[in-house]
Amino acid sequence: MIDKQQQSKDSVFFRDGVRRIDFVLSYIDDKDGERKQERRKLYEANLMKVGLELETEDKSESEDGKTYFVKIHAPWEVLATYADVLKIKVPFKANDIPDNSQMPMNWLATPFRLPEHIMHPEPDYFTASFDNSKCDFFLIDNKDTFFPPSTRNRIVYYILSRCSYFRDECGDKDKKGIKRLLNNGTYTAAFPLHDVSLFWPTSDANCESDRYNLYKYWARFFCFFKEQPLNLIRHYYGEKIGIYFAWLGFYTEMLLFAAVVGTICFIYGFLTYDDNEWSKEICDEKIGGNIVMCPLCDKKCGYWKLNTTCNSSWQSHLFDNVATVFFAIFMGIWVTLFLEFWKRRQARLEYEWDLVDFEEEQQQLQLRPEYETKCTNRKLNRITQVFVVVFHDVTVVSALKISLIIACIIGVIAYRLAVYAAFASIMKDSPTSNLQVVGPYITPQLATSVTASCINFIIIMILNLMYERVAIWITDMEIPKTHLEYENKLTVKMFLFQFVNYYSSCFYVAFFKGKFVGHPGNYAYMFGSLSKLRNEECDPGGCLIELTTQLVIVMTGKQVWGNIQEALVPWLMNWWGSRKARNHPESLYSRWEQDHDLQGFGQLGLFYEYLEMVIQFGFITLFVASFPLAPLLALINNIIEVRVDSWKLTTQFRRPVAAKAHSIGAWEEILSGIAILSVVTNAFIVAFTSDMIPRLVYMYAYQPDSQRNMKGYINDSLSVFNISRIQLTTLWIFLCRYRDYRYPPGHEKEYEHTMQFWHILAAKLAFIIIMEHVVFSVKFFVAWMIPDVPSDVRARVKRERYLVQEYLHNYEVEKLKVQLKSGNLIHCV
């Protein structure tokens, strides 16, 4: 027996130095803890009954002097039994299929490669589900190291989740599970240990240095250009976390192509800056300076000159040009390639990580403890005479939450309408002037858009704090049967909340603002004419630049805030939590105490990482036609995101319990839905939010064949309204202009839409139909051309299944021969 002070502070073994610590429980024995003490006593007794070995560190040995640590070791018999129950796959034969995955000119990727022992920490084997009665069938060299630590802690957590801590006198109701004990305060934490320190490898041959290698080759920011050691991540954290980082890395790689094309489209807009005839007309003193526009709001807004929107018109051209159409079509194809190639990458990982048949096992074997204990609300089915589970109806709750989001968005819209008039009345060149001439850089539209976007972003962040609890509460009420079903239900609910929360303001600017304003003398009002809140108009430069502003503020703000929160908050909390250890350097700060002072990763830790990236994916696909640089911003963020996530997981969080996942789950269906919706939204943005279609109609239908230019477009796109005789400075005006295609006063169809309006509308609808059909046709063709599973992976899966059958058959035959000769059975010791 080794005294604690004689142990290494990074020791992951019991005091005997032999038995490995597979899990740690901690608790504080307070004065009012008699009931908790009884629970712990029964719970730990039941753990020992199933074969686990426990060793308790007294509170006098802990750093704070009040925390007990219960160390848990799973001996071989327990590991073998539950590996059989969980159908864990283990090696039975070395892989004999040659690896032909080397690409031509592979030397070009050498600077991005990691050492082979880091990329592939384990040899490649054929595997089969473990069978405790056939131990000699598998390649077991050392029983102490046969199951890696990630598998060991997964097995122990499975036992902890199903072990009871209370039984009533009748003996028919068990309370079970470590999760309940954590919730009621019986235990303060439950976690597996990290293997070694971050800053130096272990010298113990029986202990791994995976954490050190992950920190050195993966978690440091200066490794941002290196590939990720996915096999090492999977080996240390389990397949569920490994598949997330594989998806995030693949998504980031694919963003590179979208970012390059988007940047080229932006550069095209910049290079064609001087060819922008309509902006020249707006800025020209003789054209835009002589066009008086009708007020954009009632009472406080006055008449204004068209050339005041000169800067916004030039800025809009950077994003509203011919390249926009090309980029919208390109992104429709890109998103299909991304999803199809990811399916192939995922299929390869499924085979390499022994996840091919995992979904069936997950559904059948790993029931949630909450499902087993909470399904007590039952009623008798009169037809079948069988008691069935009764679930709560949560539809009303979900509807109320969605209604709250919509109410907040309506509030932001009302803010935009009210504050625009305030900005318009303040931002004048002359306080005595009746004519509002806005400064050259800031307009009421821009000021309103920026402040409304910022307020909307703050509301989004506030509502996010509430959605987590609501979504978890609703999902818990449904009592899903398995962990996979629970996560899928929660994923759908959270994404629906976040979809409305994040995208509704962009949808408003893109598809509603400026579309239902009426015309001078007959304006449309929000909440009716009594509200005095006139619907917003787009300025002559269009609403696209405002959509761009909204997208940049919300998307960039979310990414910056998310990275700061992810990196800074855990670090500050850990710094504060470990301050006592820094104040007592003379005492041993053991591995379990070091990990106890870290933050818990939590059941939903990975869920929020996916949610963050999927929301970003929506921004760069649904509204990318308005901002071609969105993929570039996403690429920069994701390069940082990979290293921030890896750094905090390796240094700031306790080691998560290893879990299996054969795919990214419900997120894959959500991404497919966003991909389809993005084609529609971008087609509508080009058609109805940008001015691309009206310009093309003007050029090709309303200009002589000999000209084919945009001269006169601004005058053509503005209608005329007859006002009373008003003196503006030294001028008398009788007419003002507004953005629409209507007949002028005095015409027999006064203020009705002109034929040009209907021609443009027909062109917009035709463009939407053509673009959608072209993109969807290419999408479906590409999806059909690219098989979801690579041919070599299919061959390997078939060969492995064949070998399992063949080797098991030969094994059983040999075993039968031995039994016939000796009459003895082969036992697993």
TrEMBL record:
InterPro entries: Anoct_dimer, Anoctamin, Anoctamin_TM. Residues 13-230 form the Anoctamin dimerisation domain. Residues 233-800 form the Anoctamin transmembrane domain. It is found in: Cell membrane; Membrane. It is a multi-pass membrane protein. Pfam families: Anoct_dimer, Anoctamin. The chain crosses the membrane at residues 244-271, 322-342, 404-426, 446-467, 617-640, 670-693, 713-735, 755-776. Keywords: Cell membrane, Glycoprotein, Membrane, Transmembrane, Transmembrane helix. One of its GO terms (molecular function) is chloride channel activity. One of its GO terms (cellular component) is plasma membrane. The keyword Transmembrane helix applies. It comes from the Eukaryota. Belongs to the anoctamin family. This is Anoctamin. It comes from Echeneis naucrates. The lineage of its organism: Eukaryota, Metazoa, Chordata, Craniata, Vertebrata.
